[in-house]
Amino acid sequence: MRNNKLNTLILIFLLVSFSLHSQTNRKLDLFIDKPTGEVPSTLYGIFFEDINFAADGGLYAELIKNRSFEFDQNLMGWNTFGNVQVRTEDPAFRQNPHYVRLKAPVHSFKSTGIENSGFFGIGLKKNNNYQFSVWARTNQPDSLEKIRIELIDSENNPVQSAELIVNSEKWKKYSIIMRSPVTESKSKLRIFLISKGMLDLEHVSLFPVDTYKGHENGLRKDLAQALAELKPGVFRFPGGCIVEGTELSDRYNWKNSIGPVENRPTNHNRWEYTFKNRYFPDYYQSYGLGFYEYFQLSEEIGAEPLPIINCGMVCQYINAKEDQLPVIKLNPFIQDALDLIEFANGDSTTHWGKIRTQIGHSKPFNMKFLGVGNEQWGEEYIARLEPFLKVLRKTHPEIQIIGSAGPDPDGKNFEFLWPQMKKNRIDLVDEHYYRNPEWFLTHAGRYDTYDRNGPKVFAGEYACHTASKKNDFESALCESAFLTGIERNADVVKMATYAPLFAHVEGWQWRPDLIWFDNLQLVKTPNYYVQQLFSTFKGTNILKITENAKPISGQNGTYASAVYDKKTDIYIVKIVNTTTSIQNFNLEFKTNKGTHLRNIITYTLKSIGLDKCNSIENPNQIIPVIENINNNLPVLKIEPQSLMIYTFKL
Ligand code: AHR
Predict the structure, then answer these.
(1) Atom 9, ligand 1: residue with shortest CA distance
(2) 357 vs 579: CA distance, rounded Å
(3) 97, 185, 211, 425: least surrounded by Cβ within 10 Å?
(4) DSSP one-letter code for 617
(5) How many whole angstroms from 99 Cα to the centroid of ligand 1?
(6) Spacing, Cα 240 to ligand 1 middle (Å)
(7) Distance between CA atoms of 540 and 329, rounded to whole angstroms?
């Protein structure tokens, strides 16, 4: 009798645990043998705009602000002492005519000179070399003048100094290497006139010698390296709203951004005044990071260059319709587009190809994509896009044209623009979405029903904005859920680029942003790691993965996609779990290949709190964890609030 009772209890226990087990393990079907499409190499890319001090003060390694004295207030960014004047007669550079004249004080105890604090200070690294350079002239025959250059630490102590003799009455470049004995994020550069006469100074520059790939006029190494490590397939530049300008005269003009840096005219930056509470009166564009540098960077990080050009429209948020360039005056803008294609792709016998060759790149950059307009909308956009298309299709059918779907992923402008894009047979439509977590989660299936025969999609700007507008884990998790939908639909969505890319911790206007930095360090956000994981494991072919014959796009808070990488013969399954409990899946293989899995590795990015972020002080709080698993068919145990990627061979 007692034995019977015991047996019954054991049976009940077994039944309960079996049913619990079968309840918790969901079943995923992975269709190995029939890829549903190819993953374009451009799928995950980057979008760079000079916002948040991303260029001057950021990726562009120049350490001196207003080096050419061309800000509207010519001495903005400079402290001057003694006898200093701004002058323009007989300038060294036609397009940057202002320079300073320093005259020695009468009393030997007094000083004349200038001082620059860079962008929120000058970042120096101990034992690193910096190239100081300046254009100078004595402006008087047979005179020799002398300057002393000092690096000043945050406590106002000179930590390094050097002297230069200016020996010509004609403009000449002088340079000297200075080694910093300290690491200091808030240094200054001070220049004293130490001879008794006077001299003129122009284009004062301080540049780290150790730039990305060692280029002169190069890029800050750690920031460029972080871009390379994203393995981007496409590189969209230079904007964004700065393409448009508030007035046509301050639109981004690519022709002003090439050639000798000293003669690239300084431009306004609309991010100076866009947000009243993040006003930066000293935010300009030096164009030191210009189109040549953008193309060069694209090549060096293995990304397809994708420039956006102005289509004769200023920023529609700020300007009324009547401020737009009349369509009949569009020709020079269309010519700019044609010249750009020649600059990128023409051989050295062409006018612009020759200029590129003279700058230092005889091989064409092989540009394949061109965006006409940034975030434009309305009939006024179509009226300007169509003349561009007419000429570009005829002269450059090889170039894929990107048109805008406006600033929102739905609504009146969007609904108007998409049919126009179809009618005009645009190659890719640029969709933008800065939306909240709920939107990202509920729109993960957005592209499942897109027209397979229409223009393709370029998700050219997107980011999940949580209530805090920080790069918290929640935003990254929601983006990863959404990206599974992009990946599943990579036959329609050919490119996706997070925005914005960079932000200086002291100089930002817009957040969240993918990479934060100060003058010495950078922070990779959880969003960065999501991009990096998806990009590294983008594979080459889309595989169908389903639960109950449906894509996994929100059921029980989970999202999934799968790809095969024919280059490495690896299968990749990405699963996002947005719930607070572990989700177990049995993976069923639809294949004739056999199901013995080898070399299983997991990459996990998981929550330590949805509101947690990485920071300068604590940059590695949230990073992917890599684990090797035995060569068994695993139950996929997807951690609560995590992105998990399984890679394996069969
Ligand atoms: O990424 C920031 C801004 O957002 C871009 O400049 C613009 O295109 C969009 O409105």
Answers:
(1) 240
(2) 55
(3) 425
(4) S
(5) 34
(6) 5
(7) 45
- From 252, 289, 292, 301, select the one nearest 62 (Cα to Cα): 289
Q: Are 543 and 533 in contact (CB under 8 A)?
A: no
H or E element at residue 532: helix 526-536
- Cβ contact 85:100 at 8 Å: yes
**Centroid of ligand 1 to alpha carbon of 242 (angstroms):** 9
Could you tell me where the DSSP H helices lie in 346-472? 351-359, 378-395, 411-423, 437-442
What integer pLDDT is reported at residue 4 of this predicted model?
Answer: 52
DSSP 265: P
User: Do the Cβ atoms of 356 and 292 come closer than 8 Å?
Assistant: yes
Binding pocket residue ranges, ligand 1, CB within 6 Å: 49, 51, 239-241, 374-375, 407, 461, 499-500, 510
3-state secondary structure at position 47: strand
Nearest CA to ligand 1 atom 3: 240
Nearest to 590 by CA among 544, 638, 635, 636: 544
Res 594: pLDDT: 76
Tell me whether strands 598-606 and 25-31 are parallel, antiparallel or unpaired. unpaired
Whether 152 contacts 189, CB under 8 Å: yes
pLDDT reported for residue 318 = 86
Query: Residue 502 contacts by C-beta under 8 Å, 6 or more apart in sequence?
Result: 48, 52, 53, 54, 58, 59, 223, 513, 514, 515, 516, 517
217, 123 contact by CB (below 8 A): no
pLDDT number for residue 625? 98
Find all residues with CB under 8 Å of 18, minimum gap 6, and list them.
Answer: none
| 183 C-beta neighbours (distance < 10 Å), count | 14
- Residue 361: exposed, middle, or buried by beta-carbon count in 10 A (0-12, 13-18, 19+)? middle
Secondary structure class of 556 (helix, strand, coil): helix
Instruction: Give residue 17's pLDDT.
Output: 41
Nearest to 197 by CA among 142, 134, 149, 151: 142
Element at 486 (helix H, strand E): helix 473-488
Give the contacts of 574 (CB within 8 A, at least 6 positions apart): 480, 484, 487, 533, 534, 537, 560, 561, 562, 643, 644, 645
DSSP-assigned beta bridge partners for residue 456: 428
Tens digit of pLDDT for each residue in 326-360? 999 999 999 999 999 999 999 999 999 999 999 99
Atom of ligand 1 nearest to the CA of 434: 4
Please provide the distance, in angstroms rounded to a whole number, between the alpha carbons at the two ends of the chain: 53
**What is the C-alpha separation between 537 and 490, in angstroms, rounded?**
14
Contact status, residue 614 vs residue 526, Cβ threshold 8 Å = yes
Active site members: 375
pLDDT for 8? 47
* pLDDT for the residue numbered 355: 98
CA distance 474 to 493: 24
Residue by residue, DSSP assigns 95-144 as: TS--EEEEE--SSTT---EEEE-BTTBEEE-TT-EEEEEEEEE-SSTT--
158, 190 Cβ separation under 8 angstroms: yes
Residues of the chain where predicted confidence (pLDDT) is lower than 70: 1-23, 633
> How far apart are the C-alpha atoms of 47 and 502, rounded to whole Å?
10
Report DSSP state, residue 446: G
Nearest to residue 253, comparing CAs of 358, 344, 352, 333? 333
Helices (H), 165-262: 221-228
40, 541 in Cβ contact below 8 A? Answer: no
Structure-block tokens of residue 253: 């003009």
